[in-house]
């Protein structure tokens, strides 16, 4: 049976073109970037060139890009490295932001969570009102990893700039999918990850605007401008840069293709009884679809669809093994039973219209089967 992958929001397969450029840096060009000899210089040149390619995608300077091991590390570094007395986040941030904020709260830092509307959008007035003279940082996710809603980042950044408050956004889901310009969007700090754009796992970035002071989480040899000590993962950095290069060339065309498939899936799925689209109907990621099905559990639907050959999820991959209802969906006003019945379908570079057509045929059957045996109906 052919397996169809529809969980690209959690991770993506590494592009073959990425693997090709990484291969020499495992065994032939294996030098340490801190070494003075030719092997080290070769690795350092590759690191510099990769940094320049990645910075260019978001209109940043190359030295404003710091490489980390994951978006989780980058987000932790921002919240814990900026510190201060008051930090503002949204109620639908990724768990690594939420958990970091909870940890900071125990250290005495005040945390304000901005609510969202039924579509998962923050209110600009709420952010403006929440900022005080003690506020050091506002961190709002660019687009929700669960429901796909895209936030008005440029407007939020403008408010923060006028209030002289630093603005960070977790762009893990938008980086490489929609255009980002850190200057035009008033972004001071930005997180992005390689494995969301067909690059290798274990490598991510943190954009830090020139002049911003941030305390590092890791201390040691002084790599990454003394902000992230440890031997640089050069093969992964090179792979990340190649993934960025590819997505830069293909982003607009691929986005249009995915939007067409996404909207077709939404139209067909909404014909099923007692189903609700979560997130904004239009202002959403080109590859994200999230539904709530009444009278069934999302976990059961995921397993039923997996048996049929379709890999989907019921929320964030970082917390999908938990049995609690999604806090993101609860924040949009859904009841616990509605949140429990959620299904996230995320499309990608290898998704075809034939696969979407097949999924659309299977989905109503799976829902009908589970509702027949559901104790909730």
What's the topology here?
Elements: E1 4-5, H1 16-22, H2 24-27, H3 38-57, E2 65-68, H4 71-82, E3 86-90, H5 95-106, E4 110-114, H6 124-130, E5 135-139, H7 153-162, E6 166-170, E7 189-193, E8 204-208, H8 223-226, H9 234-269, E9 275-277, E10 288-293, H10 298-307, E11 310-311, H11 327-331, H12 336-340, E12 342-346, H13 353-372
Parallel strand pairs: 1-11, 3-4, 3-5, 5-6, 6-7
Antiparallel strand pairs: 2-8, 7-8, 9-10, 10-12
Helix pairs in contact: 1-9, 3-9, 4-5, 9-13, 10-13
Q: Name the average pLDDT.
A: 95
Order of secondary-structure elements: EHHHEHEHEHEHEEEHHEEHEHHEH
CATH class of the largest domain: Alpha Beta
Q: Bin the helical content.
A: 40-55%
C-alpha end-to-end distance: 32 Å
Inertia-based shape: globular
Name of the CATH homologous superfamily of the largest domain: Type I PLP-dependent aspartate aminotransferase-like (Major domain)
What strand order characterises the main sheet? 2-8-7-6-5-3-4
What is the count of helical runs?
Answer: 13
Number of strands: 12
Low-confidence stretches: none
Q: Notable features of this structure?
A:
377 residues, alpha/beta, Aspartate Aminotransferase, domain 1, Aspartate Aminotransferase, domain 2, 2 domains, seven-stranded mixed β-sheet, three-stranded antiparallel β-sheet
């Amino acid at each position: 049976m052919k397996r169809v992958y529809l969980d690209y929001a959690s991770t993506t397969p590494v592009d073959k073109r990425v693997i090709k450029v990484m291969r020499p840096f495992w065994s032939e060009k294996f030098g340490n970037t801190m070494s003075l000899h030719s092997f080290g210089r070769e690795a350092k040149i590759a690191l510099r060139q990769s940094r320049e390619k990645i910075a260019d995608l978001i209109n940043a300077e190359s030295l404003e890009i710091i490489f980390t091991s994951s978006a989780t590390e980058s987000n932790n570094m921002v919240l814990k490295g900026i510190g201060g007395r008051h930090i503002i986040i949204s109620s639908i941030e990724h768990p690594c932001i939420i958990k970091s904020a909870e940890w900071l709260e125990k250290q005495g830092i005040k945390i304000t969570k901005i609510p969202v509307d039924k579509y998962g959008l923050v209110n600009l007035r709420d952010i403006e009102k929440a900022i005080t003279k003690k506020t050091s940082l506002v961190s709002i996710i660019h687009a929700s990893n669960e429901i796909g809603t895209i936030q008005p980042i440029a407007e939020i950044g403008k408010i923060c700039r006028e209030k002289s408050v630093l603005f960070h956004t977790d762009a893990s889901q938008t980086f490489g999918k929609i255009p980002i310009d850190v200057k035009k969007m008033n972004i001071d700090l930005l997180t992005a990850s390689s494995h969301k754009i067909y690059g290798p796992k274990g490598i991510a970035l943190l954009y830090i605007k020139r002049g911003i002071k941030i305390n590092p989480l890791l201390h040691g040899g002084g790599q990454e401008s003394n902000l992230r000590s440890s031997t640089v993962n050069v093969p992964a950095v090179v792979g990340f840069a190649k993934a960025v290069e590819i997505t830069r060339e293909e982003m607009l065309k691929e986005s249009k293709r995915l939007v067409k498939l996404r909207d077709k899936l939404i139209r067909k799925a909404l014909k099923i009884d007692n189903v609700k689209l979560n997130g904004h109907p239009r202002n959403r990621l080109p590859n994200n679809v999230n539904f709530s099905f009444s009278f069934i559990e999302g976990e059961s639907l995921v397993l039923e669809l997996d048996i049929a050959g379709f890999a989907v999820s019921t929320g964030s991959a970082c917390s999908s093994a938990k049995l609690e209802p999604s806090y993101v969906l609860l924040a949009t006003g859904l009841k616990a039973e509605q949140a429990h019945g959620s299904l996230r379908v995320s499309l990608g570079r290898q998704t075809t219209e034939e696969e979407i057509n097949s999924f659309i045929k299977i989905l109503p059957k799976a829902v009908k089967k589970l509702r027949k045996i559901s104790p909730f109906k």
